[in-house]
Amino acid sequence: MHQPITLEQYLGPYRDHPQMRSAVLLDNARQIIERVNELCSLAEADGVELEDNPMTGTAISGNGNGGARPSDTTVGAILSAHKDLRGLDRHDPRRLLARWALTYGIDHSQRLNLYHEHPQWTRSWLHSQWGAPGDGLTSWTVWFVPYADLVKNPPTCAALTELATAGISPYPFVELKGKRP
Q: What is the pLDDT of residues 59-68, one digit of tens each?
């Protein structure tokens, strides 16, 4: 059963960083945690088996940078939602949560104001953030490509068959279900 992500887990190795004392950022963190926990609970209710990350001992992906990241860290993009504590990488090595989110979770994601990186850029996690992604990114409803420069940042993994269910184009992008990137 899914163990809800806590604020302490989300802050991870950065819990003592001065930036993590900001009331605004801590409110952002609480909101992303609450929203992702709710999405995970809904997925579990539909039979999705969620796993914890053996590297972090939590549901957060990576080795300590899948949750909060201070603005002065070199990990991730400069404008990453992780750096204003609105982004979270949920450990998903079998990609079961991503598959569920593509097939059944779009309405839930819209209601929760959650946006997710296109699964071809997230090989073992589901990146979620509350609030729409920045300009210049290709997006479909609640799914987006995390980079504007796809030559410099090509996909890191194969397309999931569930992309078609969500009306999302696999890379290289083509028209699918009447939608254009």
A: 999 999 999 9
